Amino acid sequence: MSDPAHDPAHVTATEHGIVRVFHLSYAVSMEIGHMGTLDGLATALGVPELDGRDVQIVALAEVREMGLTEFLKLGYEISEDEIEPLRAELDGLQGKVAILRTGAFGGRDVHLATDKGARLIAAVKEGGARPPTLAHADRPAEGARGTLGAPESKRRPSDAAMSGRVATVALLVLFALVALMVWIGG
Which keywords accompany this UniProt record (predicted)? Predict the structure, then answer.
C-alpha cells in the first residue's frame, strides 16, 4: 500500500488529496446495487455516512481492457511512481471496487474498518489535488475594520432637471393627442 504519510485507514479532518481503493465483498456490492445507496459501504467502513459525490463504485469487468491501474491514472491523475508498485494487485482484482476521495468522509476525523466487507487495497495521492485554502488568518482583514457611516443622502434634482422632465411629459401628451386626432379624422 502506498504511504499517504500516515495510517491509510485513518482519515483526518484536514486530509486532502488521498484516494482510497477498497475491494468490496460480494455482500456489500450486492447491497449497494440493490438498495441504490452507499449505506452498506458506510456500514462496512464503520462511518456514519459517505458523500456520494466523492465515491465511485467500479465493476472491474467494465474496465478489464484498460485495467484498474490505468483507470486510476487517467481518472484520478495518480502518478506512475505512486501506482506502479500496486499494479499487479490492482489489476488482479475481480468483482467491484469502491474508489473514495477524501471528501467522501465529510471532513470528519474517522478510522476506517477494513475487515467488514470493504478491504483497503490502496491509498494514493491524487494528482492535481491542491490543498484547500483555509481561513486567511495570516492575511490582514482590512475590509473588516472600522465602522460604516450613515449612507449619503441622495441629492435633490435641480430645478432645470425637473423642468426638463415636465417638458418631456408635456411633449409626449401633445404627441398622443395629435396622433389621436389624426386617427379619428383619417
Answer: Membrane, Transmembrane, Transmembrane helix
